[in-house]
């Protein structure tokens, strides 16, 4: 049996979407035709691409090794289709952690789409660990993260500088002096992001560097929930300056100067196949060159 482009596209879509039904729908195939095509591809390759456990498909080790090559073939085909076009087009798959996705990415995407109006952005939002997982599984071409990360298969490139800010409610006892010392850091309760988020990783590292131990009150996955919890008096918070700029300006929250080192670098996450995708490469170049003139 031959290995057709359609079958390779089906394999890639199934790995990316996690469901054969979704992959079949994306490629306008019936469920039975997709199932048969996947079986034929596995027979032609001589090894299984997925393990079938009930209705779920789990990609095999051989499937994981084959996936980058299949994506490279797909990207090369796309580049052939676009070879004689002056404009960039296609789906731009980006996954970003919450602060970047909320406060930076909308402006960046808007400018990029204005330059390339035929580009269709597909944006996913999660914490740093989710971004890494999406890139590792090929669900996105480009990731943007807020915290430190390492990965043997992915390239993580420093991008923009950011700083976390400790803050409290206007009624808090620390609000008048707008400072917090090491003893007070350990005395008061905290409302923080969950483990796995870049913001939490930076905060924990700064606390550990000072040899301190804090009292964790609540862990929350949403920045808005953290801000409202701090306003309600449930504890101190620590988020990116980007995410609390409006509240600091209108007096809804009070910034506290601290001895912690809370500077960090946002990072760009890619894999080697991103650079075979002309659209992804164009967006990567744009991100690296574009100054961030507005951060609030």
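-> sequence recovered:
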């Amino acid at each position: 049996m031959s290995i057709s482009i359609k079958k390779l596209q089906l394999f890639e879509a199934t790995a990316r979407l996690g469901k054969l039904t979704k992959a079949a729908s994306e490629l306008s195939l019936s469920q039975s035709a997709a199932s048969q095509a996947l079986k034929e591809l596995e027979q032609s390759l001589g090894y299984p691409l997925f393990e079938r456990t009930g209705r779920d498909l789990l990609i095999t080790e051989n499937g994981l090794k084959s996936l980058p090559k299949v994506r490279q073939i797909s990207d090369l085909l796309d580049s052939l289709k676009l070879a004689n076009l002056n404009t960039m087009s296609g789906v731009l798959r980006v996954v970003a952690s919450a602060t970047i996705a909320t406060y930076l990415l909308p402006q960046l995407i808007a400018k990029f789409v204005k330059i390339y109006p035929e580009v269709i952005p597909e944006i996913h939002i999660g914490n740093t660990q989710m971004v890494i997982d999406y890139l590792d599984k090929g669900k996105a071409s480009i990731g943007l993260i807020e915290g430190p990360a390492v990965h043997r298969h992915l390239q993580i490139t420093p991008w923009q500088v950011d700083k976390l800010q400790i803050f409290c409610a206007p009624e808090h006892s620390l609000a008048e002096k707008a400072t917090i010392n090491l003893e007070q850091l350990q005395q008061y309760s905290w409302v923080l992001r969950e483990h796995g988020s870049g913001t939490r990783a930076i905060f924990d590292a700064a606390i550990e560097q000072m040899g301190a131990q804090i009292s964790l009150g609540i862990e929350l996955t949403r920045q808005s929930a953290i801000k409202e919890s701090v306003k309600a008096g449930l504890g101190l918070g620590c988020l990116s300056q980007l995410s609390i700029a409006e509240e600091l300006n209108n007096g809804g929250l009070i910034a506290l100067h601290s001895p912690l080192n809370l500077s960090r670098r946002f990072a760009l996450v890619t894999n080697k196949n991103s650079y075979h995708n002309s659209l992804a490469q164009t967006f990567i170049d744009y991100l690296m060159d574009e100054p961030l003139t507005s951060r609030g």
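The first strand starts at residue 50 and ends at 53.
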